[in-house]
Amino acid sequence: MARVRKQRILHKGMGPKEMQTAIAKFVEEIDAEKAWRLTVEELSSTRSTAQNSFLWGVVYPTLIEQAGEALRGFQAADIHEFMLGEMWGWETIEGFGRKRMRPVRRSSTMTKTEFADYISFIEQRALDMGIVIPEPLSIGE
Q: What is the CA radius of gyration of the chain?
């Protein structure tokens, strides 16, 4: 059976009473015979398709191609994981009797600004290796 997901956006500038009315109307529309989870989260614009395409189509391939022996055997996903951890920090997780590190944040939750900062971070790390990443015409759109 398909999972039902309902969503309402409370726009910037709505007063508390307007929000209460919108939320009450939303709740009235759901099936009281089912259990529901209500979550309220700040609406933010996540990374754009152009930004993501630039990262995976230009940044990572350029690093792999130009780094030579320094990144021999690395795939784009390996670099992605490493750079996320280097920028946002690492956490240690344990399972099956082993410990491993993983990045504290994932790129899928980044805003457009955070994602642009992430790309700039990678470009700087590339420059430290003597690698210049070609710039796109525009990555913020």
A: 21
- What residue spans define the domains of the chain? 49-128
100 DSSP β-pair partners: 93
Closest CA to 105 of 38, 60, 46, 54: 46
* DSSP conformational letter for 91: E
Report how far residue 108's alpha carbon sits from residue 125's, in angstroms, rounded to the nearest whole number: 21
Which alpha helices (H) appear in the chain, and where do they start and end? 16-28, 49-54, 60-67, 76-88, 112-128
pTM of the model: 0.65
pLDDT tens digit sequence for 27-86: 888 888 988 888 887 766 778 888 999 999 999 999 999 999 999 999 999 999 999 999
